[in-house]
Amino acid sequence: MSTDEPQPQPRQPSSQGPAPDPLQTLLLVLVTVLVLGATGYLCVTHPALTAPIAAVGGVGAALATAIGIVLGNRTH
Q1: Which has the closest alpha carbon to 32: 76, 68, 70?
Q2: How far is CA 63 from the centre of its chain?
Q3: Please, are residues 43 and 49 in contact by the beta-carbon 8 Å criterion?
Q4: N or C: which end of the chain has fewer CB within 10 A?
Q5: Phi, psi for 22 (deg, rounded to 5)
Q6: Which of 33, 39, 66 shows the shortest CA–CA distance to 52?
Q7: What Rg do the C-alpha atoms of the chain give, in angstroms?
Q8: Could you tell me how far CA 27 lies from the centroid of its own chain?
Q9: Which residues of 8-28 are buried (b: 16+ CB within 10 A; e: fewer)?
Q10: 18-46 pLDDT per residue, tens
């Protein structure tokens, strides 16, 4: 036997963490697009509601960001 053959190296653990669930990502994107579309439609059809809708949209965007961060940092 020859000792010149390369020895298999053990796999190093990935430092990136678990991969995100594709279904969860798809649903998050779908809900975001639907909410933005509905908000845009309401702002165009009812201009008087633009300011309240923008306020609710700002709070919703912050909440969606927080939920996305929590789901992204969750370990399986």
Answers
A1: 68
A2: 12
A3: yes
A4: N
A5: -60, -35
A6: 39
A7: 23
A8: 9
A9: eeeeeeeeeeeeeeeeeeeeb
A10: 667 788 888 888 888 888 888 888 888 99
Q: How far apart are CA 24 and CA 17, in angstroms?
A: 16
CA distance 18 to 75: 7
Q: What does the alpha-carbon distance between residue 5 and residue 64 come to, in Å, rounded to a whole number?
A: 53
| Whole-structure pTM value | 0.52
Are the C-beta atoms of 10 and 21 separated by less than 8 Å?
no
Assigned token pair, 72: 């992204």
CB within 8 Å of 42: residues ≥ 6 apart: 49, 53
Residue 57 burial by Cβ neighbours in a 10 Å radius (0-12, 13-18, 19+): middle
